[in-house]
Every structure is written in C-alpha cells, then in structure tokens.
Amino acid sequence: MLITIAIVLGLLWLVGLLGHVGGNLVHLVLFVAIVILIYDFVTGRRHEV
C-alpha cells in the first residue's frame, strides 16, 4: 500500500515538474514520496498484491 502511494506521489511530482505546475508544492510531494519509500524499506514490510 505504501509503495503504491509513493509511486503515485512520485508520478504527480514528475507531472508537476515537467508541466511547471504547483511551484514549491511539487518538491513537497517528492519529499513525502521519498519519506514513504524510506519508511517502507526501514520497516521491512513486504505486502503481497
């Protein structure tokens, strides 16, 4: 679940970066996506789809 959220946030960041939309909010979205990915890797939880 967390991986899915991180991927969606990463894609939204990429769209915002390429489309020049959102200003500094784009970087906040990227930061949240990275934090979620790091948290998922640190906790070591593996979810089956």
Please estimate the helix content. over 70%
Tell me the strand percentage band.
under 5%
Regions with little confidence, pLDDT below 50 for 5+ residues:
none
Q: What number is the mean pLDDT?
A: 75
Order of helices and strands: HH
- Tally of distinct domains: 1
The radius of gyration computed from the alpha-carbon positions, rounded to a whole number of angstroms, is 12 Å
Structural class: mainly alpha
Question: How far apart are the first and last residues' alpha carbons, in Å?
Answer: 9 Å
Major sheet description: none
Number of strands: 0
Shape: elongated
- How many DSSP helices? 2
Brief rundown of the structure:
This protein has 49 residues and is mainly α. It is 76% helix and 0% strand.
Question: Keywords, please?
Answer:
mainly alpha; elongated; 49 residues; 0% strand
Structure, explained:
- The chain has 49 residues and is mainly alpha-helical.
- It has one domain (2-43).
- It has helices at residues 2-19, 25-43.
- The protein is elongated, with a radius of gyration of 12 Å.
Task: Please write out the topology.
Elements lengths: L1 H18 L5 H19 L6
